[in-house]
Amino acid sequence: MAHENEHDEERPRGINNLNIRDDVTDDVPSSLPEQMGGIGLPPLFPGTHIFRIPQSVAQLIETYDEIVKDAQGNAMADPANPQQALLVQRIRVRFDKDDPLLVVGSSEDGHPVATSISNQPRNRARKGEPRILVSDMAYLLRESMKYTGPLTKNSEWIAALQWAAGRVFRAEHGLSAYCNDQKVRYIHDASDPTLRGSMLDPTGQKGCGERLYTSSFRLPAQNGQPGGYSDLAYCKKCQAKLRGFFQIERFLKPTEAMLADDVPF
Ligand SMILES: [Zn+2]
Question: What spacing in Å lies between the alpha carbon of 17 and ligand 1's midpoint?
Answer without folding.
Answer: 47
